[in-house]
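Retro notes (design track)

What went well: tokenization of the new backbones is finally stable.
What didn't: we kept losing track of which sequence belonged to which structure.
Fix going forward: every design gets posted as structure first, then sequence, in one message. First example under the new rule, 178 residues:
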């Protein structure tokens, strides 16, 4: 499937699938304290970063997840994904992260909107969900700005470094006006 398009219908310069030559960027991201926990297995070498990118490609082929690098002037500075693609109920799970130097530019909100439109138009999904830690108001602003409505708090949902965190769940429907 093609990468998400911009509102004007032209291929967007904001998102593209991760490529093997992005491995050095992925390795650097994995070394950032707040972002390293985004990965299910450690990325501690270029080979591990290349393997992770290959896994992202395989998930796309398997129709289970669609992951895109978020670009700023052509350079990957973040990530946005629609995963847990479930065809029976036409649902998916959206997640995103941005490198520190790219935060505060509105890129995460734009990327979240673009991947949502991709999921509705290209994947035929109807409902997208996401959650953020309650102590992360910036992520909440991204979710709201991308048209995701709050649906409730899940107590002690996440565990990081021995500490449990509450999350707020949001959802966006294909029929929502954004």
């Amino acid at each position: 499937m093609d990468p998400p398009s911009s509102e004007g219908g032209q291929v967007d310069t904001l998102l593209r699938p991760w490529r093997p030559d992005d491995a050095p960027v992925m390795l650097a991201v994995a070394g950032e304290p707040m972002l390293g926990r985004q990965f299910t297995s450690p990325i501690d070498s270029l080979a591990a970063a290349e393997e992770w990118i290959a896994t992202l490609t395989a998930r796309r082929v398997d129709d289970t997840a669609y992951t895109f690098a978020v670009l700023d002037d052509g350079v990957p500075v973040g990530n946005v994904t629609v995963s847990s693609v479930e065809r029976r109920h036409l649902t998916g799970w959206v997640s995103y992260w941005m490198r520190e130097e790219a935060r505060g530019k509105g890129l995460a909100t734009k990327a979240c909107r673009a991947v949502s439109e991709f999921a509705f138009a290209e994947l035929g999904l109807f409902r997208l969900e996401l959650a953020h830690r309650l102590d992360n108001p910036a992520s909440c602003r991204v979710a709201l700005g991308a048209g995701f409505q709050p649906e409730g708090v899940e107590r002690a949902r996440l565990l990081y470094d021995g500490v449990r965190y509450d999350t707020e769940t949001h959802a966006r429907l294909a029929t929502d006006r954004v």
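Added context from the reviewer: The beta strands are 15-17, 66-72, 75-86, 91-98, 127-133, 149-160, 163-173.
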